[in-house]
What does this fold into?
Amino acid sequence: MEFLYPNMLYGLFALIIPIVIHLFNFRRHKLVYFSNTSILKTIEQENSKTKKLKYIITLIARMLFIAALVIAFAFPYKKDNNTINNNVDNLIAVYIDNSMSMQSLSSEKTLFEDARTSAMKLVENLNQAQKYVLLSNDRDPKNEYPMNKDEMLIRLNEMKTESVSTTFEDIYNSLSFIRKKNDFNSATFFVYSDFQNNTMTSGDLKVDTTIQIVVFPLESDFQNNIYIDSVWLQSPVLQKNMTNELNARIVNETQNEIKGLPVNFSIDENVVAYTTCDIKADSYADVNMQFAIENEGDSKAKVSIKDSPITFDDEYNLVLKVRPEINVIEISSADKVQQSKFNSLSLLFDGDPLINYQSMNQYNIDQNVVNNAQMIVLDANVNETLQQSLIEFAERGGSLLIIESQGHKVAESQTNSYIYNHLGIKPVDFDENETKVEYIAKRNTFFDDIFVKLPDNADLPKIRKHIRFELGKNVQNIISLQNGDPFLMMSNVGKGKVFVMSTSLDEEYSDLANHALFVPLMYKMALIGGNVSELSYTLGIDKTLNINDVSLNVDDRISLKSDNAMYDIFPMIENRSGINYIYFFEDLPSSGFYDIYKNEDYVKTVAWNDNRDESKMSFYAKEEVVKIFDDNGLNVAVAVDNDDINSSDMIEVMVKDSSLWKIFVVIALMALLIEILILRFWK
It folds into this structure.
């Protein structure tokens, strides 16, 4: 037995009062004289013994009355790990896993519906005076503030599944904080979840011994799922009316092989490609579909399959952006800028409607133009500040080509050292011996759509002068010379790529500019270059958007529109290195397409998808969950079997009143009644 208000037990000192009264009974006695007292003396002795017994019983009754009354005010209750603390000072917390995996079916209902029904029955049987909080994956603040029973039932009824996933440790730590913040002595934590493996991390649990956990593991009757895991493009840059290839990974989480699964690809609600795929049991398959886009700008695309009962992951949303042109900037010395009309790049790109070429003096850089470029060619030695900007350009998706014509300055270490140090390469020597290109890494993805077939005895460019480089482990040598020296190097930097060519395009250095290899190399670098829009974002994970299509100010009002509904948001806007970033503080309500507006002006369209971690049908059994909790020092009171989750008898047993104060009130009243009867009838 334990006490909710143990300080009230100090009232037991009041037991001294009846003891004092009985020890110092100053009641006066009347003397009566009789002629013959021999018989009366015997009677007096007998009455004395009777009165003494009467006083003792009265004393016991009075002391019992006081003691029982004091104990009742201390609110005693029975400590039982198999029952729920139904006292008013105990916070009732209900966590319902409302992630997308809870859409799986149990009999005719989803796991989420089963959890909500059970929770409502539970609350209905609990104390009206208690306070409640409702925890969920979307972490709605209004549900985490202590509410009464009626409010709790309303919130439970309004609850629905959300495209947000969270870990148990986040939910548990949040409850511990809520209990302490609102001064509750203890809490009972009802957990309704399918206990998906990826959500059961416990590394940062802050164990709270005052929290009693009641586990409701929900198990689906159908733990099979087929879903679209990811989608990507063969070429990240799309051109109008040009054929591109889309790839999609389809995962089969069933124990049966799937044959002839239809896969559709639609753009702006029009089906543009269709295929089927076979997937082995508990495996995946990659499918590819070819398509072309007729319109410039953003197009809403979707890859879809059909699978039940879990359907949230049967579609994958993506936005395809066709640019009207590709901006190519060449940074070179002043004299080369003056002759730019006649240089190799200008002659290559001039008149091409797809390419917007511009030459810039290394000492007169327009940063806005650079930020909007897809490819930058550096044919000069520039200061470190500009070198840093160029690396940042590559990191956000740009294609940077360094044409090294400063061979004579290698020994003086006057080349673009910051970039080279960042890449992990080092110019070591200047070779003036004529050689040829000998090896092309055709299997490198960079050359995927350049060569149909390259003959073994192909006539490759001559190189008259070049710089010799030492390469770091993160740099790929994709074209080599006859002596083994690298000619064209490639390094992945952030979302973009940096290319280093060991010689100049001037005829004095090489004949590459006049060779057939030159055109596909330059166009491929331009096409894979900068500011490639994200195909999609993931709900609950991605809270930052890269918006480089328009300038933003901190006081701009950003709105999102989806299905004719406007969502006014107040994100934090930041500009870093010419790129606008929008930070979301709240999760969007659902997956789909959202049009972004700045002060009512359309900016761009973005696509959001549900977290594919929720698609993985891997769960912990009840015994495994209890063991995980026990191993982490958590107080598990009850682990309810799946069949008993909605059992009324189970709920009644769990919420039975464990308080004992009523018993002690009855004892006090009985003691008082005994005292009254003794004093009234015992003469």
